């Protein structure tokens, strides 16, 4: 009796419950219904439904920008605040490795996190140096043998000359502009520092996202507008949209490559 009871209970335990069977049947029914419905949709609707349309990317971009306290203002490199989007940091290192600049000039040091990041990439490459500029000298800036700090406005003649003097004959030069984001200032930076960027290297204009591209629509003319005006007369640079491959970037339209 006991042996027979145990065997019966064991077999029963191995049988799927009626509830589970019903759930499986319901799941297959819903799946079949969904597939049937999607087959009736026009092809473009299917593309819209299963791809990542710009409005979805822009909505995420807006959320990421608005939640700055936990997103881009909460981004550090080796403990130092960087205020860079992680996808952009990844793209920077790809560009640096591909083009191997001898000098990277950065306008907009802030706390020094991005300069330290660039120097760290150069460390891995065993080559390169960083010249970074800001009107404010924040305390506890990271010290690194590859970093030179310049204090002053990036558009001041004496600061521009100091940055230019850091370039040796034959050096390949890359530039990142991330200081005052108002159009007039960025345009002046573009006119100055574009002269220093060597053929095949990049001039990156940060924060082209603001003034409604797609964030902070109240800002007024800024980096994106400065880039548009700059490119209308300077044909040595092209916008490299392939560098926006991750969707989220602070520099939409701002990855400028020197091609002539």
Could you explain how this protein is built, in words?
The protein is an alpha/beta fold. The protein folds into 2 domains: 49 residues; 187 residues, Vaccinia Virus protein VP39 (Rossmann fold, 3-Layer(aba) Sandwich). It contains 9 helices and 9 strands. The strands form 2 sheets. A 7-stranded mixed sheet has the order 5-4-3-6-7-9-8, sandwiched between helices. The longest helix is centred in the first third of the chain and has 22 residues. The radius of gyration is 27 Å and the shape is globular. The N terminus is likely disordered.
Describe the structure concisely:
This protein is an alpha/beta fold and 260 residues long. Helices cover 44% and strands 14% of the residues.
User: Regarding CATH, which class of the largest domain?
Assistant: Alpha Beta
Please describe the biggest sheet, giving its number of strands, its sense, and whether it closes into a barrel.
7 strands, mixed
| Uncertain spans | 1-16, 23-41
CATH architecture of the largest domain: 3-Layer(aba) Sandwich
Coarse morphology: globular
Total of helices? 9
Class derived from helix and strand content: alpha/beta
Find the count of extended strands (DSSP E, 2+ residues): 9
**CA gyration radius, whole angstroms:** 27 Å
What would you give as the CATH superfamily of the largest domain?
A: Vaccinia Virus protein VP39
How is the CATH topology of the largest domain named? Answer: Rossmann fold
**Topology as a string of helices (H) and strands (E):** HHHHEEHEHEEHEHEHEE
Output mean pLDDT.
87
Distance between the termini: 93 Å
Strand content: 5-15%
Share of helix, binned? 40-55%
The domain count comes to: 2
Strand order of the biggest β-sheet:
5-4-3-6-7-9-8
């Amino acid at each position: 009796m006991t042996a027979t009871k145990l065997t019966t209970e064991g077999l029963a335990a191995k049988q799927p419950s009626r509830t589970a069977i019903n759930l499986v049947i319901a799941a297959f029914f819903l799946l079949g219904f969904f597939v049937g419905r999607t087959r009736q949709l026009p092809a473009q609707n299917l593309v819209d439904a299963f791809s990542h349309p710009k409005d979805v990317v822009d909505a995420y971009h807006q959320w990421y920008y608005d939640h700055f306290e936990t997103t881009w203002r909460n981004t550090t490199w080796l403990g130092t605040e960087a205020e860079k989007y992680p996808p952009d940091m990844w793209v920077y290192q790809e560009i640096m490795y591909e083009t191997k600049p001898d000098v990277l000039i950065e306008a907009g040091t802030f706390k020094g996190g991005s300069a330290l990041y660039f120097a760290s990439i150069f460390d891995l490459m065993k080559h390169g140096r960083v010249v970074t500029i800001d009107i404010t000298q924040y305390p506890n800036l990271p010290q690194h043998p590859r970093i030179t700090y310049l204090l002053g406005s990036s558009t001041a003649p004496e600061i521009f000359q100091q940055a230019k003097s850091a370039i040796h004959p034959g050096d390949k030069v890359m530039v990142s502009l991330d200081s005052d984001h108002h159009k007039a200032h960025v345009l002046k930076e573009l006119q100055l520092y574009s002269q220093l960027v060597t053929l095949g290297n990049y001039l990156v204009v940060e924060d082209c996202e603001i003034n409604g591209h797609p964030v902070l629509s109240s800002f007024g003319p800024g980096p994106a507008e400065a880039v548009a005006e700059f490119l209308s007369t300077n044909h040595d640079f092209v916008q490299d949209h392939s560098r926006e491959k991750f969707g989220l970037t602070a520099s939409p339209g701002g990855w400028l490559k020197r091609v002539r």
